Structure formats: C-alpha cells, structure tokens
C-alpha cells in the first residue's frame, strides 16, 4: 500500500508540475477562483426510480487513475443552490487534475443551472431520496471507485438522510445545518460506523462549531472540523482552498498538500459565457 501511494504521489508530481509553499515552477500560474484545470468532462443524465431525468456532469482525470469519487449534493435550490454552487464547481474544475478525483455533480429535482433544469419539483428532502439513489447508481454502474458523498448545506441533509448506501465509503459535509436531518438519521450512521467529516465554519448562519459538536456527538466516528473565520458560503479563495483540502484529506490523503500553482494548459471561467 505504501509503495502504491508513493508511486501515485510521484505520478501526480510529474503530471502537475505544480507547487505549494514558497517554491515556484517556471511558467506556473496561481490557481485562482476562475481557473479550470484539464479534465475529461461530459454531460450526464441521471434517471430516478420515480421517472425523472436529472442533468449533471462527470469530470474525471485525463491521464491518472481515479483515486476516489465525489458524488456532490448541492445547497438548497430554493435559495439559489445548484450543481454550479461555487465550491462544487471548483471541486470539478480542480480536483481531477490536482488529486485524481472523479467529480459527479447534478441538479436535484426541479433545480436549474447553466447545464440545464432537472425534471420534477423541489420536495424538501423527501423525493430527493430518489435523486441521491440515482447518482449513486450511476457512479456504481460506471465503475467509479471509492465513492464518497460530498454534501454542502442542504446537500448534507440529503447525504445523512438518504446516502447510507452499501457502495458509499463515507460522507464529507460542508456547512451542515441539520435542518431536515433527524436524530434517527444520525443514529443510523453511528450504528453503521462509516466515516463522517463535518467541516463547520466559525461564523455559520445555521450551525456553528459548538452546536455542531453537540449534535454530532450522536455519531461517535464523526469528526467535526472547525474553520476559523469562515462563513456558510465559503466565500473567498482561502476558504475554498481550506474546504477542498479537507475533502481531499478525507478521500485521497496521498494527494495533499494541494498545489496552489499550475504549469500547463488551463482555462479561465467567464461568468458571461463559456470558458
């Protein structure tokens, strides 16, 4: 195992030509909010058991084996959340190249984004159980390895309520409000034992670290990570880098530390049009 990890780390270093800390690579550029790193990206359609089609995207590494898979569950669509919510979008833009991750994003029922609108209507975390199941089924059918749920805000409720599937290795929760999640959902994760990491901003609007530790005490294996100075929406590049590092540290720790520069082809996102 150690040998495989060492070879993988070396391959990443050669592939990236990227750097962290004070070292620099000639021709390297800083990875910024709009930087899109190389990956294979394709639109996907998920089909739910209750007959809906959901729009999504799968991003995979160009020339690295997939180290792990993130199934992304987005924030509340009634408040603007979608597969394009910025942390999930940046995970898809960066992590295939930086960490060898496959990133599956999709719009839950009734949710719209640049990629399109999923069929159906928002169902307050009830009918969305079919959406979560469809995403897990897609990842499993396409042999995407080491599948993890990555939920943000409302998406953390979906992960905790509907994500305890045999093919899932664990869950990473960003800004969990525990709005829809009930005690019996937490108890199910506790009994199962699979890892849960909750990344909680110091100034979260809904559940701050002390309250999060109290709520997640029902799940003995849950790890609550406090992030000083951060807010629910993780605005700003320092917050994004911290969140993505926490995610990678859980699902593919051999890829840490994540580079902050990149030497090679890249694109820059344009809010007014295509990259």
Care to describe what's here?
The chain has 275 residues and is an alpha/beta fold. It has one domain (38-252): Alpha/Beta hydrolase fold, catalytic domain (Rossmann fold). The chain contains seven helices and 14 strands. It has helices spanning 2-16, 86-99, 128-141, 154-162, 183-192, 209-216, 237-251; strands at 29-30, 35-36, 40-47, 53-60, 68-73, 101-106, 112-113, 116-117, 147-152, 168-174, 196-201, 222-227, 261-262, 267-268. The chain has an eight-stranded mixed β-sheet with strand order 3-4-6-5-9-10-11-12, with helices on both faces. It has a two-stranded antiparallel ribbon with strand order 1-13. A two-stranded antiparallel ribbon has the order 2-14. The radius of gyration is 18 Å and the shape is globular. 46% of the residues are buried. Mean pLDDT is 91; it is low at 1-25.
Largest sheet, if any? 8 strands, mixed
Helix content: 25-40%
For the record, the CATH architecture stands as 3-Layer(aba) Sandwich
Low-confidence stretches: 1-25
Q: Helix tally?
A: 7
Distance between the termini: 39 Å
- SS-based structural class? alpha/beta
> For the CA atoms, what is the radius of gyration?
18 Å
Report the mean per-residue pLDDT as an integer. Answer: 91
By CATH, the topology is: Rossmann fold
- Could you state the order of secondary-structure elements as H and E? HEEEEEHEEEHEHEHEHEHEE
The percentage of residues in β strands lies in 15-25%
Instruction: Trace the largest sheet across and list its strands.
Output: 3-4-6-5-9-10-11-12
Number of domains: 1
Would you state the CATH class? Alpha Beta
CATH homologous superfamily placement: Alpha/Beta hydrolase fold, catalytic domain
What general form does the structure show? globular
């Amino acid at each position: 195992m150690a040998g495989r990890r060492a070879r993988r780390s070396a391959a990443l270093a050669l592939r990236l030509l990227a750097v962290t800390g004070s070292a620099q690579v000639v021709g390297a550029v800083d990875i910024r909010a709009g930087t899109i790193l190389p990956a294979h990206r394709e639109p996907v359609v998920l089909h739910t058991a209750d007959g809906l089609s959901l729009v999504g995207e799968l991003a995979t590494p160009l020339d690295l084996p997939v180290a792990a898979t993130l199934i992304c569950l987005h924030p509340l669509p009634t408040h603007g959340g979608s597969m394009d919510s910025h942390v999930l979008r940046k995970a898809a833009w960066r992590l295939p190249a930086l960490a060898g991750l496959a990133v599956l994003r999709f719009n839950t029922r009734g949710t719209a984004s640049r990629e399109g609108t999923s069929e159906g209507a928002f169902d307050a975390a009830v009918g969305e159980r079919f959406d979560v199941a469809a995403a897990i089924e897609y990842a499993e059918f396409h042999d995407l390895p080491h599948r993890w749920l990555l939920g943000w805000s409302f998406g953390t409720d979906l992960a905790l309520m509907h994500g305890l599937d045999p093919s899932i290795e664990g869950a990473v929760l960003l800004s969990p409000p525990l709005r829809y999640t009930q005690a019996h959902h937490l108890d199910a994760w506790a009994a199962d034992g699979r890892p849960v990491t909750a990344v909680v901003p110091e100034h979260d609007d809904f559940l701050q670290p002390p309250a999060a530790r109290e709520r997640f005490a029902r799940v003995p294996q849950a790890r609550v990570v406090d992030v000083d100075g951060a807010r629910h929406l993780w605005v700003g590049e320092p917050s994004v880098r911290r969140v993505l590092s926490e995610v990678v540290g859980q699902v593919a720790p051999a890829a840490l530390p994540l580079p902050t520069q990149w030497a090679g082809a890249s694109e820059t996102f344009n809010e007014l049009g295509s990259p």
